[in-house]
Write a structure and sequence with these properties.
Arc Repressor Mutant, subunit A; alpha+beta
C-alpha cells in the first residue's frame, strides 16, 4: 500500500470541554501506535509515511497497518502520492 498524505478528521479531534490543545482520541482507535499517529497528525495536519516513521520512531511496516486502520475508520485520508492528512 502506498501511503500518501494523512490527516485527522476535525469533527472527532477536539472535545469542546477541554481547555488545552490536545486532541481527544476516538475510543474506536485501539492500538497505541494508531493513537500516536492520530495525535501527531492532529498537531501537524499532514505528514508523509517517512515523516511519521522518523518523528514517531516507528517502523514503516507497522505504521502502514495503523494507517490502514485509521483510513478504514475515516480518520485519515491520502493526499497525493506521498502525504496523509486529516479526513474532512
Amino acid at each position: 500500500m502506498l501511503v500518501e498524505s494523512v490527516g485527522v478528521s476535525h469533527h472527532v479531534c477536539h472535545d469542546p470541554r477541554r481547555t488545552d490543545r490536545t486532541p481527544t482520541v476516538p475510543s474506536t482507535i485501539e492500538s497505541a501506535q494508531s493513537k500516536l499517529v492520530y495525535v501527531y497528525l492532529a498537531a501537524t495536519r499532514e505528514a508523509t509515511a517517512d515523516e511519521l516513521a522518523d518523528a514517531l520512531d516507528v517502523r514503516k511496516l507497522g505504521l502502514f497497518t495503523g494507517l490502514a486502520t485509521l483510513e478504514a475508520h475515516g480518520y485519515v485520508e491520502r493526499d497525493g502520492p506521498e502525504a496523509v492528512t486529516p479526513a474532512d
